[in-house]
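BUG: 3D viewer hangs when loading the predicted structure for this chain

Environment: internal workstation, default settings.
Expected: structure renders.
Actual: progress bar stalls at 90%.

Input used:
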Amino acid sequence: MLRQRSRQSRSRWPGFTAVEILVSLAIVAILSAIVVPEIMGRIRESRRSALSQTLFGLTQGISEYKKATTRYPFQLSLLTRPPIANTDKDACGTFLSPTNANNWRGPYVSRQLLATGIPMGDGTIIDALERTSSTPTYLLMNVTNVDTEIALLLESELDGAVSNPSTGTIRYTTPVAGQVTLSYSIPISGC
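Structure tokens produced before the viewer hung:
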């Protein structure tokens, strides 16, 4: 009689069999394989979009700065603060004259620009601008630690196709651990 009661009491306790647990784990694994890449793709797309819009906004700010001061800035932070004559430089490395500095009518972008750069996801837009000496001449905005896939998406968006990482609007270095240093090139004339 005692044995019957213990068997009966065990059967009243609900539980899962090993097969039920394995089937449940298989379902979770299949759903994860479908959902996780979709979520990661959307996150990557939103980071690409944010970086693209920020670079475009900074380009417009640089253009407005140039119209006012007749010089391209040496740093992005000059888009949000007035340049100091004979202290701040233009893109060619020449000190700005008092006339050029007094023509500043900014700020030319609405976000605060720090000397440490602009954080963008895992990357950072570097404050210093770089002028190329090639013909045609470009002003480069550099972004560090950009996901390689985001760089490829930006190149496809802005250059029409993924072709050559050393030419075009989007340029980037050889990937290291899935990250690149990206340069956004703006065609310019003069300093």
